[in-house]
Amino acid sequence: MKKIVLLMALFLMVACQAEEISDPIVSQVYEEDAYTDSDLDEYKIDAVLDDEKRVIDVNQVITYTNRENVDLDKLYFHLYPNAFSKEAQPSITGNTKGVENFGAIEVSSIIIDGQVVDFNKGPTLTSIYVPFDFKMGQTYKIEMAYQVKVSDTSERFGYDGGIYNLGNWYPIISVYDEDGWNLDPYLSIGDPFYSDMANYDIHISVPSDFIVAASGYTIETLQTDLLTYHFKGDRMRDFAMVISDQFEIIKESVNETDVYLYYPKSLKKHKWLDDALAYGVDSIRLFEEVIGDYPYKTYSVVLTNFPSGMEYPGLVFISKGYLLNSQASLRNVIVHETVHQWFYNIIGDDEIDEGWIDEGLTTYFTAYYEKELIDEDTYNTTMERYQSRVDAYGFDDIVVAKTSYEFDNWNDYGVSAYSKSALVYHELYKAYGDDKVREFAKYLYENYAYKILKEEDLRQSIESVFGQEAGKILDTWWY
Ligand SMILES: [Zn+2]
Fold first, then answer.
1. Residue 320 to residue 267: CA distance in whole angstroms
2. Region at 105 (left for phi over 0; alpha for psi -120 to 50; beta for the rest)
3. Separation of CA 260 and ligand 1 centre (Å)
4. Of the CATH numbers 1.25.40, 2.60.40, 1.10.10, 2.40.50, which one belongs to the domain with range 41-196?
5. Ligand 1 centre and the CA of 360: distance in Å?
6. Contact criterion met (CB below 8 Å) for 426 and 364
7. Can you say how many angstroms the Cα of residue 46 is from the centroid of all Cα atoms in its chain?
8. How far is the CA of 221 from the centre of ligand 1 (A)?
């Protein structure tokens, strides 16, 4: 059970089923819980946004434990805002015309267990490393001071039209796995991320009329000259925020989760806002039933300046442009990004080497929402559309199981990692039925929640639930 503590009396207006939060700046705070897994690394971040300069000054303390079975002589960090620097131009989208402010993270100091250490540029523009003796099983306190410069971009990271999109905005430790360090750059195709679960404790101070949507839940807000939000994020692969002085919020609860829709005030009269919130709510309800528990207190759907949709733990970016598109496309993108809470976040994968795993499962279960909450015809039409895309491209020419480096362009990526990768599950559905598909979804959750799902794990899971014969379908479809 969650106890919700209202910091001050809220005048709750009921608009359809959604509660309107009339003082969204304060919104509501939750009782602080102990971390579900206190053995994870913790990122403790204290950030101050200077809205005039578009910079964020940050002190970050990571409690890091070397959980690998070797001693490490260095630690790498991704500094993704550097992908939006002048040096990185042309940008990943080429969408930087008229950009005056470029992005960067400028690290001023790193201190490990009280000792000031040197740090060096890594192999890519978006990485640095600290040489240090990290003994197996030992825990270290890593303090970093840095400034984040926010670029004029409406991307995962950037400022546009009064809204800050802060995805991948802080130094995050690179994954060390059986292949060693994963130091991939910020690739232009796919979602170029791969990260370990961690716990987050975030303070962010903003001008007092600003609202912060975040991956975690609010445990307190403090009003001085600035407004400080204090968030906690429990067992997440990342921590994103969207900040603006233009947001209004509506909210609805489902099971143990409060779902929020943040939208710019200028869209207040838009007729689909309640529907947008409902797509988030219905997705959480359906996929908790079909796949497994959504483990967080809050889920935030943020309508922002962004080209499409983007998933982060507990929070998704949705282009506000979908409100001018069709209602079906708005539904589709919100359901899709919500399914990613299970595939990418809870059940993780290496999105650079095997991004087709989370995109394929997510695309399939987005259609599954249509089957369950609309009708079977809509689901079948979606599958036929994917099939004709695949056929038009040439079935045999499409290899699903490949890395982001091997895709020619977004079209190639889309038809492989999304359409053809999703159709495999439709083949399994046709051959084995709905009960088996649900058993499979639960099997993945039970065996891989909070872990990394790899191609061989996925194959083993499919064969274990559907039988050895199902492996033949994979041979036809994946390679
Ligand atoms: Zn996706």
1. 9
2. beta
3. 20
4. 2.60.40
5. 8
6. yes
7. 21
8. 33
Domain edges within the chain: 41-196, 351-478
**C-alpha–C-alpha distance, residues 198 and 37, integer Å:** 9
| Model confidence at 304: pLDDT above 90 | yes
- Ligand 1 mean position to 311 CA, how many Å? 7
Average pLDDT over residues 421-439: 98
d(CA 314, CA 56): 22
Rounded distance from Cα 169 to ligand 1 centre (Å): 20
Dist. CA 38 → ligand 1 center (Å): 29
pTM above 0.90, yes or no: yes
* pLDDT tens digits for range 446-476: 999 999 999 999 999 999 999 999 999 999 9
Share of the chain above pLDDT 90, in %: 89
Kindly give the distance from the C-alpha atom of residue 343 to the centroid of ligand 1, in angstroms, as a whole number: 9
CA distance 109 to 82: 17
**What one-character DSSP code corresponds to residue 401?**
S
Distance (angstroms) between ligand 1 centre and the Cα of 178 equals 26
Q: What is the pLDDT of residues 206-215, one digit of tens each?
A: 999 999 999 9
Which CATH superfamily does the domain covering 351-478 fall into?
A: Neutral Protease Domain 2 (1.10.390.10)
**What separation in Å is there between the alpha carbon of 12 and the centre of ligand 1?**
34
